[in-house]
UniProtKB/TrEMBL annotation:
PANTHER family: TWO-COMPONENT RESPONSE REGULATOR. The modification 4-aspartylphosphate is found at D56. It comes from Niabella pedocola. Keywords: DNA-binding, Phosphoprotein. This is Response regulator transcription factor. Residues 145-210 form the HTH luxR-type domain. The keyword Metal-binding does not apply. It comes from the Bacteria. CDD domains: LuxR_C_like, REC_NarL-like.
Length: 217
């Protein structure tokens, strides 16, 4: 029977638990590599590919999210499963956008983690229940009312709203499941259509336009 070859990328906190020993006791899973930082994972996994990378977000040096983004370009068939204590929206969607195929919180328990590894290997998308709720809310809940200009497309208005909330380009990209370069293109188009040169000018101009429209009604 084929064992799922797993690499673990995490800090001392996770490695100090019984998780690795637990995984190696499973008949379907084998932990073949353990990495404590992103740089070693990049070089090691490229030399010895694995089926599943179980990774943490915060690491010494480059983050787990950046590691996944790079590795998915080199090893597209490898499944990447986040295992972290970070549960904020920005981190979750940055990880998913980078190429993570699942997102589990550390308090999920060893049984849930092993089931997550088997699920992601088979093409599933395991997530902790709270993460699932956040993803559903982001994808299906109607956006809150906010800035809107008739000069802009629907997506441009959506991005302008995100800009007004102070989100960074990476966070906006993760929110809409698009690349950072696509975000930059939309923002250039926004500036050109509104004839402005900055985020602040764009927000102020649309706010002024909306206020004038209300007063004229």
């Amino acid at each position: 029977m084929h064992k799922i070859k797993v690499a673990v990328l995490s800090d001392e906190e996770l490695l100090g638990t019984t998780l690795v020993a637990f995984l190696n006791k499973q008949t379907e899973v084998e932990v073949v590599r353990i990495f404590k930082d992103g740089e070693s994972a990049l070089s090691g996994i490229e030399k010895q590919p694995v089926d599943v990378l179980l990774f943490d977000i915060h690491l010494p040096g480059i983050s787990g999210i950046e590691v996944v983004g790079r590795l998915k370009e080199r090893c597209p068939a490898m499944a990447c499963l986040a295992l972290t204590s970070k549960d904020d929206d920005g981190t979750i969607f940055e990880a998913l956008h980078a190429g993570a195929s699942g997102y589990l919180l550390r308090n999920a328990g060893n049984t849930a983690i092993i089931e997550g590894i088997k699920d992601v290997y088979k093409g599933g998308f395991p997530m902790s229940s709270m993460v699932t709720r956040k993803v559903i809310n982001r994808l299906f809940v109607a956006p809150a009312p906010g800035l809107k200009s008739e000069k802009l497309s629907q997506r441009e208005n959506e991005i302008l709203l995100q800009l007004s909330k102070g989100y960074r380009y990476k966070e906006i990209a993760a929110h809409f499941f698009i690349s950072v370069e696509t975000v930059r293109t939309h923002i250039r188009n926004i500036y050109e259509k509104l004839q402005v040169n900055s985020r602040a000018e764009a927000i102020r101009k649309v706010k002024d336009s909306m206020t004038a429209s209300i007063h004229n009604t």
